Amino acid sequence: MSTTDQQTDPIAEAIARHQSGRSAVPQAAAFHAWVAQQRGSWSGVMPGLAQARMGHIDFRSPESAVAAASASMDREGATRAYEALQQSQGFEMGVGHWMEQRCVYQSSNYASTRLEGAMRDCHLGVDLFAPAGTALRLPLAAEVVVAEVRDIRLDYGGMLVLRHQGPAHPEFFSIWGHLSHASAQRWQPGEQIAAGSEFAQLGDFAENGWWLPHLHLQLCLLRLPDFSDAPGVGEQAFAPVWQDIFPNPAPLLRADDEALRS
């Protein structure tokens, strides 16, 4: 682990708690109890999500045509590979798995600052693949924390971070990546968004970091000093910690959340 000051780094503090045998995030148990009561309640975030036949988009192996094309930012190749998968497997919506160890994060941007020689390649959110321009509806009222455009290839493109606070659950944050630029530019930190609002759209390649159009949805139970730098992928060695800090969104998205895991 690096010499990052643990007094100002909530992630380092969580890692230290886990290494000492404690829960990495004390409020994780309460959050999971709330999620158990809310299964499928976020299925309206994207049209058709509740009933869509899901297909796994494999980013684990360099043998995956989608992974290889995405890593090389080959728009046409990634699109052809995705459409071929849809045709052969008969799914309506692609899904990228939470906690999947991926091969596409190989640039120096993904080198660990916490473990020497390690890469950040463990995916900390759920990816839902849908056409560019697909409208997103907010499932739970929120305050805007970050609204920005990360206009760098293989980054988020349009990005929102929202804070959720209510009497039934601990404070938590949701990270929405690969949005259109207009979706991020529409909002300002501190603004409130009502539940059920159409608040964002998926970006196309030129706006979303040069990925196949999809939503990266990630939850976070820690208040980070700078959510602009919240990791979307982490070191595999810290997987148990990531599971506490960035819990799986799948049970909220589908009551039969195995459809997002299989």
TrEMBL record:
<feature type="domain" description="M23ase beta-sheet core">
    <location>
        <begin position="123"/>
        <end position="219"/>
    </location>
</feature>
<dbReference type="InterPro" id="IPR016047">
    <property type="entry name" value="M23ase_b-sheet_dom"/>
</dbReference>
<protein>
    <submittedName>
        <fullName>Peptidoglycan DD-metalloendopeptidase family protein</fullName>
    </submittedName>
</protein>
<dbReference type="InterPro" id="IPR011055">
    <property type="entry name" value="Dup_hybrid_motif"/>
</dbReference>
<dbReference type="Pfam" id="PF01551">
    <property type="entry name" value="Peptidase_M23"/>
</dbReference>
